[in-house]
Amino acid sequence: MTEIPKSHPRYESLMTREKITEGVEKGLTSRQGLIAQGRGEAFDYLIGERTLESAHYAQAVAAALLLLAKKPVISVNGNAAALVPSELVTLSQLTGAQLEVNLFHRTEERVQKIAEELKKHGADVVLGENAEPLLPLDHDRSKVERDGIYAADVIFVPLEDGDRCEVLANMKKLVIAVDLNPLSRTSQTAHISIVDNLTRAVKNMIELIPDLKNMSEDELWGIIGAYDNPMTLIDAIEEIKEHLEQIQDELFGPEEEPEPDPEVVAAMQKRSEIARRVMMRGGDLMME
Ligand code: PTJ
Known about the structure:
single chain; alpha/beta; two-stranded antiparallel ribbon; 10% strand
């Protein structure tokens, strides 16, 4: 692992890279997972590597939904296992959600290694090894456990692919997704789309849970009922636009009003001069 000094301006982001690379070396994360991480980093850079207000709101609603769910499941892939294994275990313990390994680039060896990794971080039971192709999908994400994702009412899916998200939503399951890209099919299809880095999102949700646990079920349903996912995604995009404008101003100075075109100015002056003469002539005619 490369030693990254804490003083580095992009310390968090570089540490995340190290964790993902280590995940590949340990056989948890797919090589394709590195590319997915790179795509995420680019979006995180545009977001400003912080939790947007809209994302914080979505995280609170998502945590409330996990608390109310009858059979919540956290779906774990190779990137999530490398980045936030202990946080996912804590989230499952706090909400009563089961953990299930579900992979796009599935190998039984990787499923087993991810399950072991989660157990090393304190998980008692990890589903996924007895998965069957129960979802109507042409790839290995179709493989889920009958008493896990297949039977779940609420599924938390860090780093989803749009395909499965759509299938789960069609099966009347409520889907919570974490995706740094607010425009992705996953973000558009999930019921709650958290536009944030997985590394921040899960920690924030864990922090929010004690306060949510002090609320009544009615209050929690009230929070969920008031939530509007498309509006929250629009807010996320607005926050990203504002951030980009702020950076643009810092780097290049505030946008100046464009200089008026001299030909247009001359034409306008000419027009107003003609108008003035016509009016004067009209006055003269009235006097005559
Ligand atoms: O299931 P596995 O382990 O075999 O791996 C599946 C991967 C991750 C390779 C697969 O799901 C994939 O190819 O993902 P995509 O289609 O590249 O989508 C990943 C999405 O997650 C992109 O929209 C990224 O912006 C986003 N993303 C990447 N890293 C993060 C992230 N979102 C939140 N936090 C991240 N750290």
